[in-house]
From TrEMBL:
This is Dihydrolipoamide acetyltransferase component of pyruvate dehydrogenase complex. Residues 87-107, 200-231 are annotated as: Disordered. Keywords: Acyltransferase, Lipoyl, Pyruvate, Transferase. Residues 4-79 form the Lipoyl-binding domain. It comes from Frateuria aurantia (strain ATCC 33424 / DSM 6220 / KCTC 2777 / LMG 1558 / NBRC 3245 / NCIMB 13370) (Acetobacter aurantius). PROSITE patterns: BIOTINYL_LIPOYL, PSBD.
């Protein structure tokens, strides 16, 4: 009798507690070779192609598309091929492993994922499958938009399909996957149907929104989101829910608000770059806000550099990538860094290391709407600045009134680690820097 093995979901990096299944690449009963793509999952950090740990037959899948699998729990079961050489339990995967700090965008045909080998987590690159070169995020988008990647014309280097290629194919409908269940065709016009008795008319029973047990009736499979029905949070949004709950439980949150007067600005300026510069200036005046705090040990770490977390909204949820060494960047470098992080967030190629280690954060929510807010401080950081929507306000000046352009600011801080005086000095330093002409 062939040996059977159970494959448990590995830790895909950063100690993430679970992952959401996006797509299985192997059907039950199919043969698969060692290291061939088994499935694609989504974590809070990235889309990851998980390779097969064995050569054999896939006999069971613990979850389908949309299911959330906990790290360390069973993911798949295999009947091993007795004639094939199998990898030892702690043997490295044999894939190309890039250093964890390597930028994932050097090759558009690869994506940074993670795979456990022994006691270590390696960063792994996935290239092509079925003659199609695309990163897992692109494959997931194609699956969502029902686009057949084999019919998409690639525009990326070395024949790689990009996000824009998939979106274009979906927009013009040139690579649509066939519908799952085609409608039955009627009789040919030349065929004469035999006479039949007129059927009796039955009035279908009225559908009720509740079952006999008084619960909402689900009209679609659990894996398919349905309006009005509970569905699990997945990926980035799921991780955000955990982080916000932990932050709420740990941080003694306090918020100060004020308005920066931009009336003296000369010419058109990059508001976000000016905000970053103002945060850096304020960190020099009040370094207590550019710090980490350990609530259990009651210790504080002041940072000599500014690694600024910048909140970015996306269709998948909230990302907060880190702009490293913001205190050493000029306006052009700040804009270039923000654009790079935004691009990596949009195509889900951002490395997990870019989403950690910020010393202070900025949320420019006013680009959408909202004047003031209470941004949430995420430990171990102790402060976050929120920038609201620009407004034109009537301002009293010597001898009369003027209309000035003003930018609302909301400074949230952990009152365990930061005094009210430190916070007020920080906010004033930002106001002073933003008031400068350029």
């Amino acid at each position: 009798m062939a040996e059977t093995k159970t494959f448990h979901l590995p830790d895909l990096g950063e100690g993430l507690p679970d992952a959401t299944i996006i797509e299985w690449h192997v059907a039950l009963g199919d043969a698969i070779k060692l290291d061939a793509p088994l499935l694609t999952v989504e974590t809070a950090k990235a889309m990851v192609d998980v390779p097969s740990p064995y050569t054999g037959i896939l006999t069971r899948r613990h979850g389908e598309a949309g299911s959330v699998v906990v790290t360390g729990h069973p993911l798949a079961e295999f009947e091993l091929d007795p004639n094939a050489r199998q990898r030892a339990e702690a043997q490295p995967t044999g894939h190309h492993h890039a250093p964890a700090t390597e930028a994932p965008r050097a090759d558009q045909g690869s994506v940074v994922g993670a795979m456990v080998a022994g006691d270590q987590v390696h960063v792994e690159q996935t290239l092509s499958r079925d003659g199609v070169k695309a990163v897992p995020a692109v494959r997931a988008l194609a699956h969502k938009l029902r686009v057949d990647l084999q019919q998409v014309m690639p525009s990326g280097a070395d024949g790689v399909i990009t996000m824009d290629d998939v979106k274009l194919a979906a927009a013009i409908g040139c690579a649509r996957l066939p519908s799952e269940a085609p409608r039955p065709q009627g009789r040919p016009a030349t065929e004469i149907a035999p006479p039949v008795a007129a059927p009796s008319v039955e009035i279908p029973p009225q559908r009720a929104p509740l079952s006999q047990a008084g619960k909402p009736i689900r009209t679609a499979p659990p894996s398919q989101p349905t309006p009005g029905q509970p569905e699990p949070l997945r990926g980035v949004h799921r991780n955000m829910a955990r982080v916000m709950a932990d932050a709420h439980a740990q941080v003694v949150l306090t918020t100060l608000v004020d308005d920066a007067d931009l009336h003296a600005w000369i010419g058109k300026q990059d508001i976000t770059a000016r905000l970053v510069r103002a945060v850096v200036a304020a960190c020099r005046i009040a370094p207590a806000l550019n710090a980490w705090f350990d609530g259990k040990e009651l210790t504080r770490t002041l940072h000599p550099h500014v690694d600024l977390g910048i909140a970015m909204d996306s269709a998948d949820g909230l990302f907060v990538p880190t702009l490293r060494n913001a205190d050493m960047l000029d306006a052009a470098s700040i804009r270039e860094g923000i654009n790079r992080l935004r691009s990596q967030v949009e195509d889900r190629s951002i490395a997990p290391s870019e989403l950690t280690g910020s010393t202070i954060s900025l949320s420019n929510f006013g680009t959408i709407a909202g004047r003031y807010g209470t941004p949430i401080v995420v430990p171990p950081a102790v402060a976050i600045i929120g920038a609201g929507r620009l407004s034109h306000d009537v301002v009293a000046v010597m001898g009369g009134i003027e209309v000035h352009r003003r930018l609302p600011l909301s400074l949230s801080f952990d009152h365990r680690a930061v005094t009210g005086g430190d916070a007020a000095r920080f906010l004033k330093a930002m106001l002073d820097d933003l008031a400068l002409p350029h």
